[in-house]
Amino acid sequence: RSELHLRSILATVPDAMIVIDERGVILSFSSAAERLFGYSEAEVVGANVDILMPPSDAARHDRYIAHYRETGERRIIGIGRIVVGQRRDGTEFPMKLSVGEANSDGHRIFTGFIHDLTEQQHAELRLKELQ
Ligand code: HEM
């Protein structure tokens, strides 16, 4: 029942929500995440979250998570950061990433909320052109 409840929430939250395990493996991928990145949930569940970012960060993301597990030092969790995401077709876009930590059946999981900043960036560029 709670699984169904979670599914219905994931289907309606406007921002993309992605849940990963402590090795960075995708456990769930919301409908908004499917639209934003161009992958279906079935395609990405079981894959590393690093498929959603450009090569520079993708090559380091496992280390980022390992560093946090080893030191407890938070660099994004509870802080948030503007980073660059990469869609299935290879195009990149600016996004606000917020990461939270939770516990599921004794396992540590991370929840990522992603807000697409493409429109905001376009608006800023138009504003600059007017100045
Ligand atoms: C850490 C980038 C998506 C979970 C980091 C860091 C960067 C980064 C740069 C480390 C910062 C540092 O050490 O200074 C990205 C990019 C993403 C992305 C570009 C684009 C898709 C996600 C998602 C999740 C996630 C969707 C969770 C569902 C984490 C965790 C850490 C981390 C748990 C370590 C904890 C922390 O630094 O606070 N990521 N990330 N990331 N990321 Fe990601």
Automatic annotation (TrEMBL):
In this chain the PAS domain maps to: 2-54
Q: Which domain of life is it from?
A: Bacteria
**Position of the signal peptide:** none
Quote the protein name from its UniProt record: histidine kinase
Lineage of the species this protein comes from: Bacteria, Pseudomonadati, Pseudomonadota, Alphaproteobacteria, Sphingomonadales
